[in-house]
Amino acid sequence: MQTPQPTSTPENIKPSRHILGLSGGKDSTALAIYMKDRVPEMEYVFCDTEKELDETYIYLEKLQQFLGKPIKRLKYDGLGFDQLLKRKNGYLPSPQVRWCTELLKIKPFEKYVADDTVMSYVGIRADEPHRKGYISTKPNIVARFPFIEDGIRHVDVKRILEHSGLGLPEYYEWRSRSGCYFCFYQQRREWVGLLEKHPELFKKAMDYEKTDPVTGVSYTWVQGESLAELSKPERIAQIKEEYERRQQAAQKQKSDSPLMDVFSSDPTGCLICHL
């Protein structure tokens, strides 16, 4: 990509800011490493929901040390998920009503940008041009896609992370995405992974689910299935068997496919959370 060049501006006009939003995922992390020496004035931000995995926070701390610059944590009016859930009268976010993305990710970022002219760097790779990252409708925010511009693909992202010494976040051993531990875009096999790796968080996620006493409507993270049902031994065995079949099918095309690669063809999710 062509490195943005500093330009002289009149004293009463601010120069453009350069901001890279991090999710704690592999792509945005690799982009931060890739851009470190290309744009020294880069600002790094992380919209903190307060519901990320411990592994995510640890990984971001390691990245911050590597970058030698602070990663600023942003929140919507200083509020986390639980406070906003109360404002929403206890109604959980869903693929149809993604208030979590709007209030916990987009609005904090736009408030941080304010009215400044900003170049916003997005970690969509060259081998996934069909994906759409967050592009603000605010006219003062211009999106840049360095990986697409420079032909950086999945294998290159892995190489960037390995060469930096950071490697992949630990949660990729059982999960395909960053974001809240109870993200409704998780696949069932990932929920089983949460149960096995972080049973206390699985229990907390289960406690969010409820049934409206008046209408009888159930509010669950997984469509058509509560976490209590999903966590039954016979259901876990079924989910694992289904995953194994998917993995075997994937390995016909690519040998030794880890979980993150098996699921990588699934575009579902909010990229501002998961890149």
- Gap between N and C termini: 20 Å
CATH fold assignment of the largest domain: Rossmann fold
How much of the polypeptide forms β-strand, as a percent range? 5-15%
Identify the CATH homologous superfamily of the largest domain: HUPs
Q: Which second-level CATH architecture of the largest domain applies?
A: 3-Layer(aba) Sandwich
Our count of helices gives 12
For the largest beta-sheet, the strand count, sense and barrel status come to:
5 strands, parallel
- Rg, rounded, reads 20 Å
**Can you tell me the CATH class of the largest domain?**
Alpha Beta
Structural class: alpha/beta
β-strand number: 7
Q: Note the overall shape.
A: globular
Physical arrangement of strands within the biggest beta sheet: 3-2-1-4-5
The overall number of domains is 2
Low-confidence runs of at least 5 consecutive residues: none
Rounded average pLDDT: 88
Characterise the protein shown here.
- The strands form two sheets. Strands 3-2-1-4-5 form a five-stranded parallel β-sheet, with helices on both faces. Strands 6-7 form a two-stranded antiparallel ribbon.
- The two termini are 20 Å apart.
- The protein has two domains: 17-176, Rossmann fold, CATH 3.40.50.620; 188-262, no CATH class.
- It has 275 residues and is α/β, with parallel strands linked by helices.
- It has twelve helices and seven strands.
- The mean pLDDT is 88.
- 41% of the residues lie in helices and 10% in strands.
- The chain has helices spanning 26-35, 54-67, 81-87, 99-113, 146-150, 154-164, 188-197, 199-208, 227-230, 233-251, 259-262, 271-274, and strands at 17-22, 43-47, 71-74, 118-121, 141-144, 210-211, 218-219.
- The protein is globular, with a radius of gyration of 20 Å.
